[in-house]
Each structure stands twice: as C-alpha cells, then as structure tokens.
Known about the structure:
This protein has about 170 residues and is mainly α. About 85% of the residues lie in helices and about 0% in strands.
Amino acid sequence: MRGKSSIKKEAERVHEAVMYSAQGQFEQAKIWNKRNTRLGIPATGLSAIAGVTGLATTVGRIPAGLMALLAAFLTSIMTTLNYARKIDQAHSSGNAYLSLQQDVRIFLEIDLDKLNETDAREQLSTLVARQQEINGTALLPSEKSYQNAKKNIKTGGQNYKADKRTK
Length: 167
C-alpha cells in the first residue's frame, strides 16, 4: 500500500504547488496592470495636452513639443516592457494552474481510492506533465507577487464553503 500512499502524497504536493503558482500569476498580473495604467494614463494625457497646446498658439510650441516627447518616451517604455502581453499571459497561466488544481483535487478526493496503483500512477504522471507544461510557459512572478499570493492563501483565499461544511 506504500505505492498508493506515495502517489497521494505526490499529488498533494502538486496541488499545493499549483495553488501557489495560480495565485502568484494572478498577483503578478495585478502588478503589471498597475504599472501599465501608471504609464498609460500620463502618456495619453500628455499626448492630448500637447496636441491642444500645439494647435492653440505658436507660443505653446515648446511646451507642446516637450510634452509630446515625454508622452512618446512613456509610450516607448510601455511598448518595450509589453505589459499588456504579460498581463494576458499571467491570466492565462493562472487559469491553467486553477484548472490543473481542480483536476488534482478531483483525483485526490474522488478518483484515487477507486483506482489501482498502476492507473493511479498513470493519472499522476499526466497531472505532473501538465504542471511542467504550464511551468514552462508561465512567466516568473516577482517576490512581491509570491508574498501576496501566500498571504491570500493563508487568509482563506483558496477556501470553499463546501470544505468548511465537511470538516
């Protein structure tokens, strides 16, 4: 019976890892979204003001030119850092981890006891392969994202009412 208990223990490790990974991806997306907004709003505002100032008077040419240059600089930072793509990628990775987390939970709570050791091992291998695939495409979250994810999990962000009723 050691075989199935080892399989269960490894599946629990996978479940824990993907729980933290999912939360880390969502927290990282929040950080990139804030940075994107902090650069995008001023860039857009400066562009608009520069356009109005430049068209309003000839005296406003220099301030308008400076604002346009600053707006272009902020836009170039946004383009280079490509926060929009990173936000989308973090959300996609986070959702992929959540899907895997649910599948591991179903494996542990519903399927494992009914499977023989060979079938259980095969299913665990499939789950681990999915985890490795997601790990390979997910961007690394920052330390701040990890800490926020950890805090969210510890304060019950991954708890379900159904789990509270059964305990």
